[in-house]
Each structure stands twice: as structure tokens, then as C-alpha cells.
Amino acid sequence: MRPSSRRSFTPLVSCLALFTLFILIPVASRYLLGWSDWSGYLSDIGFGSLLLLLCYRRPLLGTLLVLIWVVFTISNAELITAVGRMPEATDLAFLVDPQFLGHSTQGSGIGHPLFAAALVLVALLALAFGRKRGPIMPRRAYLIPVTLLGAHAVLQYAVPEESDLWQQYNLPHKLVAEGINALQSQAQDWLEGGDLDQAPDIDALALLDLNGKPLLPKGGSARNVLIITMEGIPGAYITGSREALHSSYTENPMPRLSQWAERGMLTPDYVLHTHQTIRGLYAMLCGDYDKLDSGTPKGVELLNNPMRNQQCLPAQLRSQGFSTHFLQGAGLRFMAKDQIMPHIGFQHTYGRDWFRNKPYLEFPWGMDDKAYFEGALGYVEKLHGQKQPWMLTLLTVGTHQPYSAPSDYLQRYPSAKQAAVGYLDDAVSDFLDNLDKLGVMKDTLVIVTSDESHGIENLRLASAWGFNLMLAPEKDGLPRIHQGVYGHVDLTASILDYFALPIPDNISGRSMLRDYDTPRDIISYTNGMLRQHDGQTFTECNFQHVCRRYASRGFITEQAQYLGRVSGRQARLVSQRAQLLDQSISGGQVGLHYQFATREPIQLKGKVRDDWADNLIGAQYLEMPKGTRTRVTLRIEALRMDRHGATLHLLTKEFEQDVAIEIPPIPLLKRGQPVELSFDFDNLETRKAFSFHLTGEGHGDIRIDDFSVVTEPLPVELVAAQQDEEDTVTQ
Predict the structure, then answer these.
(1) How many Å apart are CA 692 and CA 368, to the nearest integer?
(2) Is the N or C terminus of the chain more exposed, i.e. has fewer CB atoms within 10 Å?
């Protein structure tokens, strides 16, 4: 090929590669992945054509945009496939976390390898042929993306969309739209006069309601209570729930548990209020909404509250003579469950280290479900042989990313996620069968539920859809399907009501052991959507700070009548109610002191493999407000150590991605030479989902005597100086 021909060929290849990368692959993958929606295609073509124009003949800018596009697009597909949600703006750092990419989707690396390979290869081709030469694109070419994105905005406004966000947007378009709408919302708030004159009423959400007709007028006859909490299971997996709510979901992932549901009282319209296990457990066991955003979990905040914890279910039952127990398949230190569970009233709290039976497969988070329930059965047998009534809460881990299932299940199911669910179905059903054979069901209230929902792609509200199955001795006196809207916030009141015990005033919600003639208010925050239901109107507020209203008697419904959009003051009422509910523990105060040291012996591993699973401290997902200073102090002592000592590392993460905090190195830990460390850092902007990861390698046992995190307001003069600096930059 002659040089002149080669020069004319290069821009053509570059343009074709950019077209394939930004438009053709996204459109084709949307169709092949089943994410087809007119809004989504407009988003792909409109935003893709804009990126193409920006990259063409701009090699430096093009390189940056191409790399960002590839990482975002692959990570977006992986997250949707793995947990059924699209990233939020606060997940940006999370998207490029190599640990996330390694553990994402079905526990086997990349879930869409051909899609990822195609993106990477075409991106390399585009970068290789990207040049400043070639015909200049006319400025009117920009009318193409402007017209398409404008049509997308009009379509979004004129026609209500109930499909998932990833069907309506590609990720960069969604993030840009989120920023634009945030600015619009702020401007509208300013024009309307700023904050509301008075705080909205939240009594309907926060108060206890026992005005319903009791299903068991004389109370329940059971003497014990067993709560089985399964990791991440949506309500759609239970046949009775699907049928009661007329769901279009046709798969039957848990047939054996669905058969057990026919023997008890199933509540299908059951709301999960948040994501994350510790938040779900708090709502279940303390009768209160956890944070309806990504702030510090209330279970952690509860460690500073010596009164509210006494109103949680374990503490209440303990005060009535029950022995109280918590047993999970994972380690306890993650998210401070080793402290939170005893604090809310569990006399005995055990994790992975308690189990002596051999697991059937290796799983980074803990016991596989079959081995877990076999160990738990032995625990129940010992409890049931005692005269004292008992409460036991179980928590599985096998259906947590990256999912746990043996090879024969992996061969029977199309994905590791489905195999893990099938494995759990058999394990929990075998456990219930054995409880029945042992006679435990005759005098024990057994409740089967899940901590959160790992979602179902293309199924409306799947991220907030849970279930509650009550297996009570009075099964003939309870309805098989319990109508009405309930949620995790109602579980504490329901159990205390079953045993006819006093219910503290600070407990929220209704009792599932009662029928109510009047509708109720309930709220949820999952997949970045804040949703409130008052029994007649369902309001859903999205990332654009725009709320859509629907006429709906239930919360989890297949379809609902669209009533229109609201924004400004009306939309802000929903978020303000959520913010007020978020302050039930802290009261909005900033200067809180967290102590994460348990002073219990910890056996170190010879090699750290995962800074999540091997974390020695439970200080995760904290919030540091803007204009504060955080001070961290720690003291660690070696109880038993070989001559080589132990190497300790402290990492900090925000939204699960490493963040640069100046932390002094921790000296080599040796016996008789405790290490102490103290440092602080300023929070000039709000930090959310902030986590500390303390890991250690060595042969021996250590004790963490102090790991305190104190966040207090910055000195006034420093805040003023920072504001002056920001004003100068703005000007």
C-alpha cells in the first residue's frame, strides 16, 4: 500500500473502531442481554455518538475517554449480572477496584468474557489508529447526539418508565444526567425558598401500631423462637409469594422451601428496606429502619447508645427469661457483628470459628450452606434439651458473592449463582425436615426470611422484595397467605406480640400476627431508589431527584397505575422523611466515639489473601460528615508469637476502593512489645461507606486493646479558611 493510501486508510479504521466501540457493541449487547428499551437505545446511540465526536482526531482525550468507557462498561455489566443493580455515582471508585472485578459474577471471574474481550480488542484498535489526521467533522455533526439525547430526555419526561435503569441508560449517560438533575434540583429548591418551614411528620412510619385484630387472640403456644436468615434471597424465589402477587417471574429456584411455605403463614408483600446484611439484621431485630442511604449503619451507631439497644428483640427476650443466641457461617468481625450482636442482647454470639464439622467446599466468606445447617442442627439439639426457653438467630453466607456450590450443582444449573440458590434450598429444607423429626416444631416459632435481596434482572422491585415464612405450632389457626404490606421493621413487634410480651414504645411497625383494616406507611431504599408507600399511593424517587407516583394498594406489585411526576418541595418531603428516620440513634449529632476493639484473642494467618475476609477489625461503611476531623488510635499486643513477629497493615477504603489517607506504618509486632498508633485526617467533603481494613500476617495470637474512631467538628477557623479557599476558586 502506498503511503498516501495508508494515510487515507488510517482515519477510516479509527472512525470505524470508535463507531464499533461506542455504538455498535453497546447496542448489540443491549439486545443480546435482553435489556431492550427505546430509551436505552437512544442513550447508547446518542451518548456513543457524542463520545465518538469528542475522540475523533483528539488522541490524548480519546485515549482517556476510551479507557474510562471500557472500564465503566465492563464493570456495569458485571455488577448488573451479579447483584441486579446499576452503579450509583458514589460507586465510581468501586467500579475500578480489581478485587470487585475478581470476585464479581458467579464466583468465576468475568461473567461476560466475549463482551469484555470485544470491547478491549476494539479499544486497542481505536487507540492504535487514533491520529490527528483525517477529514474534519463538521460542527453540525454534533446535532446528532444533541437530538438523540434530547429525544431521550423528552421520552423520559413524557412516558413513565418502569423498567430498570440499565434498560433506560448506559452508565456514563446516567452519571451525567444525575449531576445535571442535582444542579436543577438545587436551583429549584432555591427558587422555592430553600428548606421547608417545618419538618415533615414521620409518626406513621416511626410509631408502633397494634390496632389490628389479633390472629391468635390468646397468644402463641410456642416457648422458643428460631429465626433463619438466608443471605440475599428475594421473595420471588418462593412459589406462594409469586402466585399471591401475580408475578410474571416464571422460574422456581427454591421448590423445596416453597413446599415448606405451604405448611406455615407466608407474607408475600414483604419489604426489605435496604441492602447489606448488618442493616437488614438491625431492622429485623431492633424494630427500626436502618439508614435509608449509604451512611454509617445504625448497628454501629448503636454501640454508643446504652439505652436503645435494650429495646432490641434479643435484649427484650433475655429480660423475659430466654437464653439468646446468634450463629452465622462467616467470621464475626466484619462490620463489627462481634460487638453489635452482644450489644443488642445476644448472650452467645458465634461465627465461623465455632464450627467443628468439616465444610464440603472451600468458600472465602465461611461455611458452605449444607455444612452450616448441619452444625446449626447440633446447636439446636443442645438448646432444645434445656428447660430454659431460647431464641436463636441463624445467618447463612453461601448465596453471597462469589456464591458457593459444589461441582454437581454447578453442572445442573446454568450459573454459579443459581447453583448456590439450589444448594441453599436443599440445605435449609433438610434442616427444617430434621427440626420436624426432632419435635422442635411443636414448641418453637420458626421464622424463615432473608437479610436483603440480591435482585432479579428485569423484575420490578425485586431488590426490595423479601418474604417472611412463619412456621408456628398453631399452623391451623393462621392463614396460609397473610395479606397486607409488612417488612423487616415489623419483625420485632410481631415476635413480641406472638409471645404476648410488652413491646417498647420506641419499636416501630406493625405486628404480622394481626389483621389491619387501615393502610400503612412504609419506606425502602434499594438500588438507589427511595420508595415510600402510604397504602394507597406508591412514590418512587430516582437518582435524578424526580419522584413518580402510582396508585397501588400494595408495595410489591406487578403493575401500578401511573399518576404523574413530582419534584421540588413535594419530592423533597420524601427524602426529608428518610433523613429524619436516619437520625433515630444519633439524633443528627456529629461527635461520636466508636470503639471497635473487642480485646479478644485473634489467631493470625500465615498469609493474607483477602483484605475483606481477613480483616481483623469491624470498622466498615462509616460516614464522616463534611467539616469534621477523624482521629484514630490503636493499640495491639502479641499474646503468643514466634520470633519472626507479625506484620500488620492498615488500609482505608471508600465505597470499597482504596483511598489515600496518610497512615503511619505499623511497626513489627513482637511479644512483649505492644504497638501503638495514632493519626487523624480531615473530612473537607462528606465521606460515605468508609472502611478500615486491619490485616496481619504471622504465627501466633494477638489482642487488639484499642481501635477507636472519633469524628468531631473541625475548628471554626479552619472551616472558614476552607470556605474562603472554595470561594476564591469559584470566583
Answers:
(1) 27
(2) C
Residue 443: inside a domain: no
CA distance 700 to 645: 8
Residues 272 and 360 in one domain: yes
Torsion sign across C-alpha atoms 26, 32, 33, 39: positive
User: pLDDT by residue (tens digit) across 352-370?
Assistant: 999 999 999 988 888 999 9
Judgement on whether residues 425 and 394 belong to the same structural domain of the protein: yes
* Domain's final residue, options 164, 190, 216: 190
Tell me which H or E stretch contains 576.
helix 569-582
The CATH number for 334's domain is 3.40.720.10
Q: φ, ψ for residue 683 (rounded to 5)?
A: -110, 85
Hey, is 132 helix, strand or coil? coil
**Within this chain, do residues 58 and 150 fall inside the same structural domain, yes or no?**
yes
Which phi and psi (to 5°) does residue 339 adopt? -100, -40
Distance of alpha carbon 585 from alpha carbon 340, whole angstroms: 14
The three cell numbers of residue 552 are: 397501588
The alpha carbon of 31 is separated from its chain's Cα centroid by a whole number of angstroms, namely 28
d(CA 94, CA 144): 32
Express each pLDDT in 658-700 by its tens digit.
888 889 999 999 998 999 999 999 988 888 878 899 999 999 9
Domain count, the chain: 3
CATH, residue 607: 2.60.120.260
Q: What percent of the chain has a predicted confidence (pLDDT) above 70?
A: 87
Same domain, 29 and 116: yes
Q: How far apart are CA 133 and CA 8, in angstroms?
A: 9
Judgement on whether residues 529 and 654 belong to the same structural domain of the protein? no
For residue 4, is pLDDT > 50? no
Tens digits of residue pLDDT in 497-524:
999 999 998 899 999 999 999 999 999 9
C-alpha distances in Å from residue 319, one per residue of 22, 210, 338, 387, 500? 62, 22, 21, 16, 14
Do 546 and 637 belong to one domain? no
Q: Please check whether residues 286 and 410 belong to one and the same domain.
A: yes
Please calculate the CA angle 435-440-444 and round it to the nearest 5 degrees.
120
* CA 258 – CA 266 distance, rounded (Å): 10
pLDDT of residue 160: 56
Cα maximum dimension of the chain: 95
| Structural domain of 398 | 203-438+450-460+480-486+496-582
88 domain-assigned = yes
Could you tell me if 285 and 493 are in contact, meaning their C-beta atoms sit under 8 angstroms apart?
no
19 lies in the same domain as 136: yes
User: Which three cell numbers, joined as nine digits, stand for 224?
Assistant: 422458643
> What whole-number percentage of the chain has pLDDT above 90?
47
> Mean pLDDT of all residues in the chain?
86
Contact 532, 526 (CB under 8 A): no
Give residue-wise pLDDT tens across range 521-580: 999 999 878 999 999 999 998 766 678 899 999 999 988 888 888 877 778 888 889 888
- What residues form DSSP beta bridges with 704? 636
**Residue 472 domain-assigned (yes or no):** no
* Residue-wise pLDDT tens digits, 128-145: 776 666 677 788 888 998
